Amino acid sequence: MSAIDEVKQRIDIADVIGQYAALKKAGRNLTALCPFHSEKHPSFFVYPEQQSWHCFGACNTGGDVFAFIMKKEGLDFGEALRLLAQRAGVTLPSRVESGGRKEEKEEFYKVNDAAALYFHNLLLNSPAAAKAKSYVEKRGFTARTITDFQIGFSLDSWDALKLYLMERGHSEKTLITAGLLYEDEKGKTSDRFRGKLMIPIRDIRGRVTGFGARVLDDSEPKYKNSPQSPTFDKSGTLYGIDRAAAEIRKQDKAIIMEGYMDVIMAHQCGVTNAVASMGTAITETQVNILKKLSKNLILSLDADAAGEEAMLRTVGYENIIGAEIRVIRLPEGKDPDEVIKEDINVWNTLVTQAIPLIDFLFEKTVVKLDLTTARDKSGAVDRLLPILAAINDPIRQAHYLQKLAALVKVDMNTIKASLSRLKPAPARRRTTAPKPAAAGTPRPLVSSVREEYFLALLLQHPELKNREEDLSIYIVNSENREIFHVWQDAADILSLKERIDPAIHEHIDAIVNKNLPGARNNIEGRFNDCVMELRKTYLRNLAARRAESGEAGVDTARLEEDVKISNQLRELDSRKSQKRNSSFGRTRR
Ligand SMILES: [Zn+2]
């Protein structure tokens, strides 16, 4: 679940708005004197089921909880999101202050590059690096590897790097922001990395974005990375991608390992399509980077270390790439770099024998359980069923449901019944209304699916941008609306992201990579259809809400407005049926 979804799930709109307005019950909904304009009779409504609000009076506007806070507190979307996240106790990806500008970023790449060279020269030439040198030798790295990966060493000093880089014209502020220095409470700065083996981390273009550092004694933690900075984002980093990208494309296969040491050894031994995920769980951003190179992803991770939550997410990534992710089964207690170093042929065999992730999860579950007992049977179902529920492809899902049924020796119908109890599957969208009202069924958030389709068309086909009509009023979700607005004058996806809060980046990636079914032609026609559907949903919601809020008093302006809305709806319907007749029964969803 994305951080934004988590905020939405934890926050109840009635609680939030209740702090700004005296809400009174009105049927299933709540009403108040509008907190934005002055009035004598309440025309402001809150809809707990849809987690939205609307003012039918002078404002004639509404939206979700973010839109409310933005308007009330005069904040932009990112600020409102952060305010509510804090209230909900949700941690968001950090927002890098003013780091968005390209020229500023260049400065950080430059300083990182200078630091990498400095550390590397120290490892090669400084007597103080003796311990580090013997460590890399013991590890089995050749001189060529040390140069290729620009492995380095940081002196055990509080200010050696600081003095070196400041002498070369870099400001202390730049060094702090780049994460090379840290600042204590009193404002005193020191070198962040001291007496460590230094591994420069590069992006796909080969620029140094940050560092990984390893201790040279037995202290913990063994590894430490650069903090988040304008250039370094751990969750979006794949170590080794600069050297592996071309090979991944050529071999149409990527091996994903856990740590940089694994990757360095892999490359030294000729496994040049290996990258590291910088942690046990791979992220959606990483999958999106790899997917452009190959859909053939093979994990070489310690499965026990990765939590079930991470595995579940990984199964979700299969839906994104539209292919199975496979897992290499390593011999008990061995790291990938050991296996590779010992015998490359053994490694190559293990790669060809990699099994689908889901089969791997079955194996892992089975060894822990005694499937002759009723308790462990239901334990297996509890563990595996949510994973199977996350599979989008119905054929693959059916295959694994059968496998599960056979495994626990329970008939397929029972398994299917349990599955339907689980549904809706763990998905990105929130699935339940927070406080189900006494009457009526919670409305599914269909509009957000259509909104995402709308945005996917827009982001993937920039030529659709900048229509005269303001389409943003049809967008209900604030994060979607924010993307829409910023996109109107963003040159490309990269600059869109630079100008938008990092908490929304994952959502943008999902939209950009959305598979748009159907022909590539007639994009504009499809877009127009989509806009029409959005407009209709908007009008229908508006009509429904006006009807519900009817008891608030009827006036003529209101009636006129109602008539206008229903006319617009009728017009849309007739346009749609004309279209259908003229398109030879072309079906549309
Ligand atoms: Zn109002």
Overall description:
- The chain is α+β, with helices and mostly antiparallel strands and 589 residues long.
- The chain contains 25 helices and 16 strands.
- Strands 1-2-3-4-5 form a five-stranded antiparallel sheet. Strands 13-12-14-15-16 form a five-stranded mixed sheet. A four-stranded antiparallel sheet has the order 6-9-10-11, covered by helices on one side.
- A hairpin with a 5-residue loop joins strand 7 and strand 8 (189-191).
- The two termini are 26 Å apart.
- Zinc ion is lined by residues 34, 36-37, 44, 55, 57-59.
Structure characteristics:
589 residues, alpha+beta, 5-stranded antiparallel β-sheet, 5-stranded mixed β-sheet, 25 helices, 10% strand, binds zinc ion
Provide a brief overview of the structure:
The protein has 589 residues and is of the alpha+beta class.
Straight-line distance between termini: 26 Å
Number of strands: 16
Note the main sheet: 5 strands, antiparallel
> DSSP helix count?
25
Largest sheet, order of strands side by side? 1-2-3-4-5
Unreliable residue stretches: 424-447, 583-589
How large is the share of residues in beta strands? Answer: 5-15%
Helix content: 40-55%
- The structure class reads alpha+beta
- Shape, principal axes of CA atoms: globular
Mean pLDDT: 83
Name the hetero compounds present: zinc ion
Which value, in Å, is the CA radius of gyration? 28 Å
